Amino acid sequence: MDVKNAIATNNVATPLGEKVLNDKNYALKTDHTYESVEDIRRTVTGMRNDYPVFVKDIAQVKDIFKEKELLAIQSEDLHTVEESTQQIVYLTIYKKKRQMQSE
């Protein structure tokens, strides 16, 4: 199991339905969301030699806050530049020239 999937599957609130009690509807759910950084550190990401591997064994987990900033520059027609605060992935890809082999 990779770290992303381990955290995603261990940080969920699952709806269970509704229950009527004294003429009132109550929404029922299980709440397995993280309450602290330590909860994330103790998340099991997989097993190795029959022992659990925790997030804290393979990563540093910090509680930090970063102000939102310009994340990327996007251009629809390659002639205009617009600032974007949307979360996107920006990749630059260069194609290698294929070398011809002589016979």
What's the helix and strand layout?
Elements: H1 3-9, E1 12-21, E2 24-32, H2 37-41, E3 44-48, E4 51-54, H3 55-58, E5 72-74, E6 82-84
Antiparallel strand pairs: 1-2, 3-4, 5-6
Overview of the structural elements:
With 103 residues, this protein is α+β, with helices and mostly antiparallel strands. The chain is built from three helices and six strands; from the N terminus they run αββαββαββ. It has helices spanning 3-9, 37-41, 55-58, and strands at residues 12-21, 24-32, 44-48, 51-54, 72-74, 82-84.
Give the strand tally: 6
Structural category: alpha+beta
Radius of gyration: 24 Å
Strand proportion, as a percent range, falls in 25-35%
Task: For this entry, give a set of tags.
103 residues, alpha+beta, two-stranded antiparallel sheet, 16% helix, 33% strand
Give a short summary of the structure:
The chain is of the alpha+beta class and 103 residues long. It contains three helices and six strands, in the order αββαββαββ. The strands form three sheets. A two-stranded antiparallel ribbon has the order 1-2. The protein has a two-stranded antiparallel sheet with strand order 3-4.
